[in-house]
């Protein structure tokens, strides 16, 4: 019996020593706390922007048609080139109109000579009337002849002015500065007054940018008035929004078919970068926020319908903090609730934090690291 007791004691001793050794090995193999990048939240005055899709339109678009009929004698421009206001684009055969002008000049000269004769006869009749050498009836006839001759001169002068205008209109000029389109009629073809389309001209500097907002977004902009409101504009291939325009028009009603409100911005275009019909990206300011709390978007995690971040406390332990996120500004996310100035947020290595309260090794970094030069977008 003593032998059995001795064996049991020995077995218990061996088991105890083995357990101590296992716990020692486990303690020696426990991993150190993970290293994570931690940044202090930013509290800055920011401007929140809404993003839209817009289209470029020309402030002035002209469908050029002749004011007189005739055969095209010359096409005086290159298709697609920039033209100036008053530049001659087409010349209609001027010879018929030059002949009409000369005839009108001759008619005016003849009418003036007749007026001179009638004026002389009327003056002589007045003298004779005073000496009672002619009758009152004859005097009235000569006075009427003078008045008729005067009217004839005025009609001839008007006909001459009309002939001069017709001759002037044989040179079809651009009414605006802009870019000319394709010549729809070439030399030798007949152009009919006020009907034949010759070409189109669209103004290119400045240009208008039209964009629409939803009714909900329009309500957010309800206090916005057109004028002096900056907008940021970019082409689809641009990085960010490198061009600056100014809001100059807000429609007075919501489109009942689309439920949108139309806005218009004016944009300088001296280099011709923008062409009417292009689609562009537009940002318009929504509001200014004072001391907005900003964090890197990578720091914000999602748990079903909730968002949260890990905040490192003074004991270097990662605490879970539920947050309410807003819009993105300059590559950072606005946090409306859940964080305050001075909080240290895990921005890189969040996947290493397996549970709230886990110990970490924080490495201090800048919250803006990797976001310099980025522009605002909306969620």
TrEMBL record:
It is found in: Cell inner membrane. Residues 292-352 form the Multidrug resistance protein MdtA-like C-terminal permuted SH3 domain. Residues 1-26 form the signal peptide. Residues 60-201 form the Multidrug resistance protein MdtA-like barrel-sandwich hybrid domain. It comes from the Bacteria. SUPFAM superfamilies: HlyD-like secretion proteins. One of its GO terms (cellular component) is plasma membrane. This is Auxiliary transport protein, MFP family. The lineage of its organism: Bacteria, Pseudomonadati, Pseudomonadota, Gammaproteobacteria, Oceanospirillales.
């Amino acid at each position: 019996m003593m032998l059995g007791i001795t064996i049991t004691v020995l077995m218990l001793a061996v088991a105890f020593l083995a357990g101590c050794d296992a716990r020692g090995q486990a303690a020696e193999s426990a991993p150190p706390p993970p290293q994570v990048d931690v940044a202090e939240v930013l509290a800055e005055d920011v401007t929140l922007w809404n993003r839209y899709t817009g289209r470029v339109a020309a402030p002035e678009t002209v469908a050029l048609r002749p004011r007189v009929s005739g055969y095209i004698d010359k096409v005086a421009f290159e298709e697609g080139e920039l033209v100036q206001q008053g530049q001659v684009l087409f010349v209609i055969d001027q010879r018929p109109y030059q002949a009409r002008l000369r005839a009108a000049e001759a008619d005016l000269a003849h009418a003036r000579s007749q007026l001179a004769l009638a004026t002389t006869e009327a003056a002589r009749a007045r003298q004779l009337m005073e000496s009672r050498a002619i009758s009152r009836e004859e005097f009235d006839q000569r006075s009427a002849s003078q008045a008729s001759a005067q009217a004839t001169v005025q009609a001839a002068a008007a006909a001459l002015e009309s002939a001069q205008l017709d001759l002037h209109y044989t040179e079809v000029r651009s009414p605006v500065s802009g870019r000319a389109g394709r010549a729809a009629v070439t030399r030798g073809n007949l152009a009919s007054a006020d009907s034949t389309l010759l070409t189109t001209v669209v103004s290119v500097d400045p240009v208008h940018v039209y964009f629409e907002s939803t009714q909900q977004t329009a309500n957010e902009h309800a206090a916005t008035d057109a004028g002096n409101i900056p907008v940021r504009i970019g082409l689809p291939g641009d990085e960010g929004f490198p061009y600056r325009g100014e809001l100059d028009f807000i429609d007075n009603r919501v489109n009942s078919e689309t439920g949108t409100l139309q806005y218009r911005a004016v944009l300088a275009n001296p280099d011709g970068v923008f062409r009417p019909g292009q689609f562009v990206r537009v940002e318009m300011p929504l509001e200014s926020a004072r001391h907005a709390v900003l964090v890197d978007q990578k720091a914000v995690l999602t748990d079903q319908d909730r968002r949260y971040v890990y905040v490192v406390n003074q004991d270097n332990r990662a605490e879970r903090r539920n947050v309410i996120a807003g819009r993105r500004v300059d590559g950072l996310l606005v946090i409306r609730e859940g964080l305050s100035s001075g909080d240290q947020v895990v921005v890189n290595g969040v996947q290493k934090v397996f549970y709230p309260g886990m110990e970490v090794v924080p490495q201090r970094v800048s919250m803006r690291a990797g976001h310099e030069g980025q522009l605002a977008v909306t969620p």
